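Thanks for the sequence, V.! I ran Major facilitator superfamily (MFS) profile domain-containing protein right away. Repeating your input here for the record:
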Amino acid sequence: MAVSKLAPRAAYYLFEGGTALLHALALTLMLVFQVQVVGLTPFQLVIMGTAMEVALLLFEIPTGAVADLYSRRRSVLIGTTIIAVSLLLQGGWPYFWPTLAGQMIWGLGYTFISGAAQAWITDEIGEDHVQPVFTRATQVVLTCSVAGTVVAGLIGQIDLRLPMLVAGAGFVLLALALVAVMPEHGFRPVPKAERETWAHLGTTVRAGLNLARRRGVVRSMLWVSLLVGLSSEAVDRLWTAHVLEQFTLPSLFGLTGAAAWFSVFALVGTLVSLLASLVANRLAGRRLNAQRPAVLLAGLVVLQVAGIVGFAVLGSLWPALVAIWVRDAARVVSEPVQAAWLNREVESGVRATTLSIVSQANALGEAAGGPPMGAVAGRFGIAAGLLGCGVILAPAAGLFLGLRSHTRAEGKAVS
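Predicted structure:
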């Protein structure tokens, strides 16, 4: 009996929610798994992150072009399956080389999904209707992430390999479900007679690059993505060490030890981000849905910078945690607004490729920004490294405000 296709919005929420739940399940205890089960040294842990970023840099644009030439739906299905393989490999063979290979395979799988999923839903429902869907998907992602974090904490008590293995099996089931229910009607692939494989792929990539250089919004988003990558990698790596180094974890409600408290911190941070997204969508829906939300995005960058700086300099645990949660919440509110604006600026034929180019700028920033800020933290203290990240991110607010001026100039020229 054939299974009916879902409406595009429902299929997109299924994909985003399922992916978020399974990623949270795999990632919540991944570092603990790599240290206690795989036995990785700190240097080897850094190598794992670098391996994934290298895979992102190598494959982001080619896989985006494949999505533009053949099928966004097919690209999403391929990426979901590859991620399943990477998690099953890491959980099934907990040794250095399988783990390293698994991290690179995971990066490859992500590149098939990056850009393709957003381009798919934009084609299915239209550029003018996609921003509310992105915002609602963010809320679904945060809710499912909470569930995944809780499940990881529960089954991780039995065996630290279980979250990886269960997440891998879950991605297999998610891919099978998407095969059955995910439609694709808005995308028009390049006709077979016109495909010259690598030559056409190269043409698509060049078109995306030309668009990124030529169009003000796309070019600015590219720079913003680079700045976010340069600053975020070090913050995401250093915040846990900063808490452990600077503060004494409390003993409250029977919770003791870093593992328990950092699970609580992750859950609270996710709930704060979810609440911020819901409140922003309810109280500032018009601004979130604006065609050119430059001022809003600049303000959210300022909040992120303030959160990073506050976390670095505050001397008490809970105010410092509130600061980093504010940073994360501002980023969560910002991402779907920025994504919708970028999708409106890009033609369908090169949409996935252009989104992949922007995503690759973020990966490049993460690969390039983490080690120098880590060196600063090692030489002058973690707080100094965090402050450096805030300084790097700050110009992104100016880039968004520059787009506001650009928009006004365009309006005067038209009139």
